[in-house]
Amino acid sequence: MSDAIRETPATPRDAFDLLTAGNLRFAAGAPRHPNQDAARRADTAAGQHPYAVVVGCSDSRLAAEIIFDQGLGDLFVVRTAGHAVGAEVLGSIEYGVSVLGCPLVVVLGHDACGAVAATRAAVQDGTTARGYLRDVIERVTPSVLAAQAAGVSEDDGFIATHVRHTVDLLMDRSQELADRVASGRAAVVGLTYRLAEGSVRTVASRGLDLPQDGTAVPAVASASAVR
Ligand SMILES: [Zn+2]
């Protein structure tokens, strides 16, 4: 547990590089499983200083600490089906950013998302879901409608559109987050994850100068990330 990934990043760029370096290790099949031992558990018991808020889909294959190869105390994670955002999600994000001081917020979507597929079906059929699943679908519906209006027909396009819309929503709804991004203290990045490959792609960025065309995140940290 003595590798160089102990430092808690203080800037959006350092946080993004550390997070994506972990994903590169995971995607390459070479995870280090940092910060998962008894010493780390003891170190973090008195207080937490995570460096990124991850707002992701609840999908069982999208476990944040696993796919980013992180450990205890590293990530402040908020997950809902289809990363649907309501008041409690926004409050949790604001807690991670303003109270815990995370310099990075990541919105994490993925291919073959059941929530997006269910919403596409509901929009297409004009049906509504039963119970509280309806609330999830209603929150994903604006993204699906926007993608359709833009001529999107493939799953990848719907997923990317929903991630971008979620990034916009966070920036629109949370003045706290928008202020921190404007002053350079935080960034919001939208990533799409590929289930089979385990890799992420950047499709949106506020506060960080990143390619947003959906190409794979490059080996930004260093070659040692996957060693
Ligand atoms: Zn999903």
From TrEMBL:
<keyword id="KW-0456">Lyase</keyword>
<dbReference type="InterPro" id="IPR036874">
    <property type="entry name" value="Carbonic_anhydrase_sf"/>
</dbReference>
<dbReference type="GO" id="GO:0015976">
    <property type="term" value="P:carbon utilization"/>
</dbReference>
<protein>
    <recommendedName>
        <fullName>carbonic anhydrase</fullName>
        <ecNumber>4.2.1.1</ecNumber>
    </recommendedName>
</protein>
<dbReference type="GO" id="GO:0004089">
    <property type="term" value="F:carbonate dehydratase activity"/>
</dbReference>
<dbReference type="GO" id="GO:0008270">
    <property type="term" value="F:zinc ion binding"/>
</dbReference>
<comment type="function">
    <text>Catalyzes the reversible hydration of carbon dioxide to form bicarbonate.</text>
</comment>
<dbReference type="InterPro" id="IPR015892">
    <property type="entry name" value="Carbonic_anhydrase_CS"/>
</dbReference>
<feature type="binding site">
    <location>
        <position position="113"/>
    </location>
    <ligand>
        <name>Zn(2+)</name>
    </ligand>
</feature>
<feature type="binding site">
    <location>
        <position position="110"/>
    </location>
    <ligand>
        <name>Zn(2+)</name>
    </ligand>
</feature>
<dbReference type="Pfam" id="PF00484">
    <property type="entry name" value="Pro_CA"/>
</dbReference>
<feature type="binding site">
    <location>
        <position position="59"/>
    </location>
    <ligand>
        <name>Zn(2+)</name>
    </ligand>
</feature>
<keyword id="KW-0479">Metal-binding</keyword>
<keyword id="KW-0862">Zinc</keyword>
<dbReference type="InterPro" id="IPR001765">
    <property type="entry name" value="Carbonic_anhydrase"/>
</dbReference>
<comment type="similarity">
    <text>Belongs to the beta-class carbonic anhydrase family.</text>
</comment>
<feature type="binding site">
    <location>
        <position position="57"/>
    </location>
    <ligand>
        <name>Zn(2+)</name>
    </ligand>
</feature>
